[in-house]
Design a protein that fits this description.
Elements: E1 3-7, E2 10-12, E3 18-25, E4 32-39, E5 46-52, E6 57-59, E7 67-72, E8 77-82, E9 91-101, E10 104-109, E11 113-117
Parallel strand pairs: 2-11
Antiparallel strand pairs: 1-3, 3-8, 4-5, 4-9, 5-6, 7-8, 9-10, 9-11
C-alpha cells in the first residue's frame, strides 16, 4: 500500500508561481511513475505532467514551458514547479503513483490540493 501526501497549493495572482510537493509513503519499488493531474470544476481530470523512475517526463501541451516536474528518488517525492500561472490553471491538483510488482500494476492517488489563480 502506498500513501501520497500533497502540499503546496494555495491562492496566487496571475503570473505568479507555486511549487507542489507529493511524498509517497510505502514501497513504490524500483520501477514507478509519479505524476500530477488536475481537475477543474465541471471538467474531467487531466494529465499535467509525469515522470518515470528513469527520469523521462511527459507534459500536457497547455503547460509546456511553464511547469516543470522533478523528483527526488531518495525521498520518494515528486515536485511540480508552476510558473506564469494563469486563471485557467485553477483546479484541484492530484498526485498519482503507478507501481509495478509481479506483473501487476497498482495505481494510487493523493487527496488533492487546491490551486487558485486569481487577482
Amino acid at each position: 500500500q502506498v500513501q501520497l501526501v500533497e502540499s503546496g497549493g494555495g491562492l496566487v495572482q496571475p503570473g505568479g508561481s507555486l511549487r507542489l510537493s507529493c511524498a509517497a509513503f510505502g514501497s513504490i519499488g524500483r520501477m514507478n511513475v509519479l505524476g500530477w493531474y488536475r481537475q477543474a470544476p465541471g471538467k474531467q481530470r487531466e494529465l499535467v505532467a509525469a515522470s518515470d523512475n528513469d527520469g523521462s517526463t511527459n507534459y500536457a501541451d497547455s503547460i509546456k514551458g511553464r511547469f516543470t516536474i522533478s523528483r527526488d528518488n531518495a525521498k520518494n517525492t515528486v515536485y511540480l514547479q508552476m510558473n506564469s500561472l494563469q486563471p485557467g490553471d485553477t483546479a484541484v491538483y492530484y498526485c498519482k503513483c503507478i507501481t509495478y510488482s509481479l506483473g501487476h500494476q497498482y495505481t494510487y492517488w493523493g487527496q488533492g490540493t487546491q490551486v487558485t489563480v486569481s487577482s
